[in-house]
Design a protein that fits this description.
26 strands, rod-shaped, 8-stranded mixed barrel, 46% helix, Beta-Lactamase, 5-stranded antiparallel β-sheet, 4 domains, Alpha-Beta Plaits, 27 helices, alpha+beta, single chain
Amino acid sequence: MINFTQHKQTFIIIFTAIILLELTDLIWKDHEMVSFLMHLGLLLITMILLLFLIQGSSSTSRELRNSNKNLNDIFETLDVAIWSHDLKADHLLITPGIEKLYGYSLDEFYRDSLLWRKVIFPEDECVLNERKEKLSTGEPCTSIYRIIKPDGQVRWIQDRGIPTLDEKGEMTSFTSVLFDITDRKESEDQYRSLVEMSPDIIAVISNSKFEYINEAGSKLIGASSPSEVLNKDVSEFSDSKTVSNIKEKVSNSFVGERFEVKVFRLDGQEIEVEISIMPILYGGRTAIQLVGRDITERKKAEKTIHHMAYYDSLTDIPNRNMFKKYLNETLDTSSDQPFAILFLDLDRFKVINDTKGHSTGDIILKKVAIRLKQVVQEEGVVFRQGGDEFILILPNMNRKSVKLMANKILHYFTTPFIINDQEFFVTPSIGISMYPEDGREEESLIKHADKAMYLAKDAGKNNYQFYFAHLDKASSKKMELETGLRKALELEQFTLFYQPKIHLETKEILGVEALIRWEHPTRGTISPIEFIPLAEETGLIIPMGKWVLKQACEQSKAWEKQGVGIIPVAVNISVRQIKDEGFVDVIKEILAETDLEPSRLELEITESIMQDFEHSTKVLTQLKELGIVLSMDDFGTGYSSLNNLRFLPIDNIKIDKSFIDDIITDTNHVSIVKAIIDMSQNMNFNTIAEGIETEEQVHFLKQNSCEIGQGYHFSRPLPPKELEMFLRKQV
């Protein structure tokens, strides 16, 4: 064996050629070895310079010593070692760099030429067999393995072996270039670990084919391993539009920009993936690095949230949020093209909700939504505003077309809804505002349609009304009325008038009916026709009704104490009072406070209690057990049926004034009044006629066995003092 220092010149000449050849090969085979190639480049340049120095035979011995020293310094600073073994001559040449790489001295290597094998990490010894087999064919071989240094440190070595074979194919010499690639290898391992452990898809695409994909990516698209995906065309996993979009973003340098694509799994399932792309070099070629994550569940959640935000959970039609969004979009694009907003409110729906329960009410609301969509079809959009209110937008419609649609809706609602074999008749009141004449922005159009809807309610329900300018004044008046009504009780603006009930044969006063009046400080006397429906609507009828009951009972007791007589008093009771849970207790309390005999209190109810027959029967039975007289007021105008009427604990039936008005001239009304009187007698009810104004009406009623009546023919409603005088005159 020969020492490196003794044959330095020869060594350089031999290995300069080797390094030139290997440098090119390394560049093309591993583009990530830039840092190491920098060392090689430096080494190569140094060697070339030294060759020039060596060739200069005229150089002085001092220059040669300096060159040798420089060469030694270079080899000692580089993490590179060169190992050359002439197998025939058994000459071994080793550069000093091996000491730094392996941690052993040159002498130790020269003494034991197999030392380099003895320090290889045990798990990497298998690499040597593969290496030996390849070198035996005369091909260069690059091996990567770990070594254990004397201090126990483990380092990664890249070993590039170059064999020389003779004519018989036997190896005559062998050269290795050794690098310490620990930093690079650890960095690569860390990167690979991050890539493989990442829950996101990481892939490299070149020429539209997958060159690399991590485990998460292969599972994402339904492959059992990455090998199933490699070399497959991306068109197998997405549509042409998506592929074109990716190529366009790469060409336009949308580096790092996130965008969403649809991906087809191997099982055909479609998923949504959010990706970002970046052009890279991979294996010396241009490629695309793709990083993405499965957002299918997130997109589903977003769709669910969007649906919850913009669609009604009960009827599954667009809600008020979607209505506002749609309306504003329509306003932005309308260009004065007319369209209509229809505001629908279901008539008497609250009664159904209260009597049959919310489950039945919910079913009806669902059926209403379906029916509205069937009517409108493609001519408009149906929204649920909330509660029993719906809104329709009818684009590109003039007033004539809107009328046709409104009539069509009313016609569709003439058919009852069937729930559990029971029929429910639900009708809509419809208010209509037109764009642009009734408003050019969202708030005005909705407000005006709402006002028109209330006009439809006031007009008897189950009809439609267009908005007109005077409605604003009417709405303002109603608002002022409501504000005043809330203060009227506190400010003692209510009074009671009393109208006598007369025995038609004897003219005896049998009692009085208490009628509330509102004396407004600026508007004067306000008719009950104006404020009673408003009190019903706002719920003020509950405290107002309690006040009326107490005042009437106190007045009856006062007349008794004053010696005027025992005067029973009748009070009108609202269906909302009947529904109030504490109503019976209120009656008991008032009777106890006023010390009035229950038989002297008559409660007049309307036929609307039939809508909650079960609850009403229960309340009326409790009142009857107290000894209170019960009358059915305005009979014949509402919901009564003879079948239900016979189960109610009532004493009297009052024939509505509308039938009495024309009993002399209208044969139909004559027949109705006779039928009511006959029915009352057969069911043991007393009959009371309201609104008697002429002696001819009195004569007819007496002839047909109606014994009790009231009306202007006998007396108009009077304040307490005037009624007291009227009573005294009758004594």
